Amino acid sequence: MMALGYAFLYLPIVSVIVYSFSGSDRATTWGGFSLQWYAALARNEQILEAAQRSLIIAAISATAAVALGTASGLALSRFGKFPGRGILSLMNSAPMVMPDVMLGLSSLLLFVGLQQLFGWPERGMTTITLAHITLTACYVTVVVRSRMTSMDASLEEAAMDLGAKPWRVFFVITLPLIAPALLAGWLLAFTLSLDDLVIASFASGPGSTTLPMLVYSKVKLGVTPEINALTTIIVVLVAIGVSVAGVLMHRRERKLARSES
Amino acid sequence: MLWLALFFCVPFLIVLKISFAQSVFGQVPPYTPLLETAENGATTLRLHAANYAALLADPLYVAAYLKSLLFAGVSTLCCLLLGYPIAYGIARAPRLWRLLLLVLVILPFWTSSLLRTYALIGLLRANGWLSQTLAGLGVLEPGQAVLHSNLAVYIGITYNYLPFMILPLAATLIRLDFTLLEAAADLGAKPWQAFRRVTLPLSFPGILAGSLLVFIPAVGEFVIPDVLGGPDALTIGRVLWTEFFTNRDWPLSAAIAVAMLLLIVLPTLLFEYIENRVDKGRRVAREAQS
């Protein structure tokens, strides 16, 4: 039963990877081993440009989301009861469960309203990035918050007792301790932003097509084998990224465990 | 810190507020909705309920709504049935295996859901493995595809959201005290009985969390029904998308969004919030007792 479940999870991905090496023009018939679709992908400037745009947006929004998410994660787990805590907490879970179409629409309406009032922001990469920050910061908050609550607060208190100022405590004690969570949060935010089609479609303007938007239009037109190659590359990159992060985190935990004992 | 937290919170508040405001106030013919209509310098609030009336009057929207609920409900059930054994297996696995199995569940989640949906197309089309297997079993006629049918949407949503079900389930099952099961067995319970009377009730929080995580986004899902479903797989997410991008009717799509929020998201969020409160209250009470 379990094997069946895992097969269900991986069968589609594996079949795409297999067919990405197919020499046939059709996406689902096998035509001998070939790298032609990778070559075609490397020549396709439209895709490359969109991929570059997506990567930039993802990197910026992930970084900003980590900064904001850390702040609110810290506030939610360390400041005890403060006015608006319940609202902040609710606010945080809202974008995670809310359907994408709603988030996309509401952020677009905000941007249009802002543009009418202040003439900023121009719809395009900026608005996509802003919308993505809103979405991904919530996920980072959850990651940071769970790390903080499972962490012993006495280290921070000790530093405080020894006369360290709050900022110093944060940078010298808290930040290194939650670093693995920050890394995980960054990666999560990065992939979420890279993946998002719906919100980006709403928030984008002319000339700011992201990779998922391009893939979507291609998929709607019919299956193109190039997308097989693209999927394979992304899956491999993600697998590498996740394993590197996993190994790093594992090592850190071990080191911490050793230094504590 | 707190300041920053609020700073991040406010834009979202505005977004929420505007998603309400626009649809209630605005109904200006061109597709730029205005918050307030200015006439000779005087600002007046114009309340237009026409969008909401249209939502109720046109059976298309109600049907799309019900269809979304059906898709999401059935898929959530599929996720639960498929995910429970996996989560159970993960929870009972030895420590190192458990980690590996968990990573294997999360890994597909890290890749794009659009690309995973696309990956399904290959399996579901007429000459794909699944369609051919089903044709071989006599369920489908030869040459017929699963793609562009309701079944394809169920498969798509289940496939995409399965990790969201497995993770909270596994988390609760790992924490579950398995000596309780041994105790049940010692007291003469058969495995099935023990599962039904002990494991299942104790894993209920995980079931609930997983179901919410799958159900709510699935109701608003746009990509999966659009790519995998047929033209009749008209979900509320798809309707919103068409109203917005094809018909350019911004106020109406905003009204759809608000209706969606009021009907599913808000109740569940409130429910979760209240439950957290109750939980906290119980904990406080317990601490006070001891």
From TrEMBL, chain A:
Topology relative to the membrane: Multi-pass membrane protein
Transmembrane segments: 55-76, 97-118, 124-144, 169-189, 227-249
GO cellular component annotations of the record: plasma membrane
Location relative to the cell: Cell membrane
CDD domains: TM_PBP2 (cd06261)
Main location (coarse class): membrane
InterPro entries assigned: Bact_Polyamine_Transport (IPR051789), MetI-like (IPR000515), MetI-like_sf (IPR035906)
Keyword DNA repair: no
This protein's UniProt keywords: Cell membrane, Membrane, Transmembrane, Transmembrane helix, Transport
Source domain of life: Bacteria
GO BP annotations, alphabetical order: transmembrane transport
Family: Belongs to the binding-protein-dependent transport system permease family. CysTW subfamily.
Protein's name in the database: ABC transporter permease subunit
UniProtKB/TrEMBL annotation, chain B:
TM segment ranges: 65-87, 99-121, 161-181, 202-224, 250-274
PANTHER family in the cross-refs: INNER MEMBRANE ABC TRANSPORTER PERMEASE PROTEIN YDCU-RELATED-RELATED (PTHR42929), PUTRESCINE TRANSPORT SYSTEM PERMEASE PROTEIN POTH (PTHR42929:SF3)
Protein name: ABC transporter permease subunit
CDD domains for the chain: TM_PBP2 (cd06261)
Membership in a protein family: Belongs to the binding-protein-dependent transport system permease family. CysTW subfamily.
Organism: Lysobacter yananisis
Sorted UniProt keywords: Cell membrane, Membrane, Transmembrane, Transmembrane helix, Transport
Gene3D superfamilies named among the record's database cross-references: MetI-like (1.10.3720.10)
Membrane topology: Multi-pass membrane protein
PROSITE patterns: ABC_TM1
Keyword presence, Ribosomal protein: no
SUPFAM superfamilies per UniProt: MetI-like
Residue ranges of every copy of the ABC transmembrane type-1 domain listed in the record: 65-271
Location relative to the cell: Cell membrane
